[in-house]
Amino acid sequence: MTLAATSRDATRQLVAAFKNSPALLGASALANVYVTSVLLSIEPNASWIVVPLVAVSVYVLDDVTDRIGGDDLEVEPRSREAFYSRPVLVAIVAVGGYGVAVAITAVVGDAIAVGLTLVPGVAGVVYSLPWLSIGDAGRVKEVFLLNTAVIAAPTAILGTLLPVALSPDPVPTTATAALVVFWFVRYAVGVETCNVPDLEADERDGVSTLPTRYGVETTRRLLYAGDVVAIIVLLAFVMPESGPLPVALMLPVLGCSMALTYYLTRPRLREPLCVAWDGLHVVMGAVVAIGVTVAAIV
Question: Which of 23, 84, 224, 227 has an alpha carbon 20 to 30 Å from 277's alpha carbon atom?
């Protein structure tokens, strides 16, 4: 095997290891909560623990369901194959993690906070299990646009509203609602971005997405539109309450999102771009944290 081939294989393994990685998704969820807290001037609370724990638990449970259901899965690194070698045990641990998240919320919050914590779990069940009968679809996962909404909406709702629900101080309503919309659009764009490299597998599994319906080029244009909508919402409805600094720190990362979208038409870059997109919120959280800290010191 040549050095170039070895390098390509190592790169594929690295990308596969990070693509939809539970650790990366957990870090992204934490960044979501942190940025929301900064924008709404909310002090750190239990949502910083609960939201990442829920995100990881729901993802792992959905992944286990896919494996048991025989979905067409890509070749994976050995570490992840070993992790899922006992799917029932993995599912039990994930359910236990979710239970811990709900218990934490029940101790520190009220019924509304507990209800918010349960939203992604209910959505995960609705998304994965074959109970639906719409055309040829047996699962929400296979239904065009609804599959994306059922992922993006619970993530946006929990990541935005749980910090608010656990905050002892009043929080501006307009900015909060706008942030739910902002994060919903962001996660919807992320889901469809990662649907591009999954295009062939989704077609085989009967999963209807933007790329399978309209092709990559049209999907790319729609993702641009989504990024523009997110930026407009942020500038028009969040910045008047948060002030310009955190929003200004977020804008370069949102610009990077649009730059990643530009390269989606290049097949070899699609998998790495999906991983990069998943990491963008982590980068956003880090940039905001550094910028806010420096501003406070100066």
Answer: 84
